[in-house]
Design a protein that fits this description.
One of its GO terms (molecular function) is long-chain fatty acyl-CoA hydrolase activity. It is an enzyme of class 3 (hydrolase). One of its GO terms (cellular component) is cytosol. The chain is α+β, with helices and mostly antiparallel strands. The chain has one domain: Roll (Thiol Ester Dehydrase, Chain A), CATH 3.10.129. Strands 1-3-4-5-2 form a five-stranded antiparallel beta sheet, with helices on one face. The radius of gyration is 16 Å and the shape is elongated. The protein starts with 20 loop residues before the first strand and ends in a 13-residue tail after the last strand.
């Protein structure tokens, strides 16, 4: 099966550039059932979105909300996890970022989107108060 003949969900997005984070799911990241813990995935998503926010804001940012978090499929130990993040909107002091997580099975090229969500960050100044996000 080639990328052209695979179902859309089975091909990692090519239009988003390189992933912000790519890592391997390890045994220490599992829940009691042996699957990768959703909280670990959420933390990886927050790290990726925080990186994008800090680069766009040119400084410190803090997560203020996570919304529309949807888990589509599980992640297993040994899977390669790729996290893509895309800015949806830049406000006066805030940045909304859409984050997608894709998994690749350890011993194949099969990929699948496993979760996605929207993260909102606020730019923080040296006084730890919201600050204006600079123009591009």
């Amino acid at each position: 099966m080639t990328a052209e003949t695979m179902p859309a969900e089975a091909v990692q997005p090519q239009d988003r550039g390189a992933p912000v984070i790519r890592t391997i799911a390890m045994p220490s990241d599992t829940n009691p059932a042996g699957d990768i813990f959703g909280g670990w995935l959420m933390a990886q998503m927050d790290l990726a979105a925080g990186n994008v926010a800090a680069r766009r804001a040119r400084g410190r940012c803090a997560t203020i909300s996570v919304e529309a978090m949807t888990f589509h499929h599980p992640v297993f130990v040994g899977d390669e996890v790729s996290i893509y993040a895309q800015i949806l909107k830049v406000g006066r002091t805030s940045i909304r970022i859409h984050v997608e997580v894709w998994r690749r099975e350890r011993e194949s090229e099969t990929t699948r989107k496993v979760t996605e969500g929207i993260f909102t960050f606020v730019a923080i100044g040296s006084d730890r108060r919201p600050r204006v996000v600079p123009e591009v």
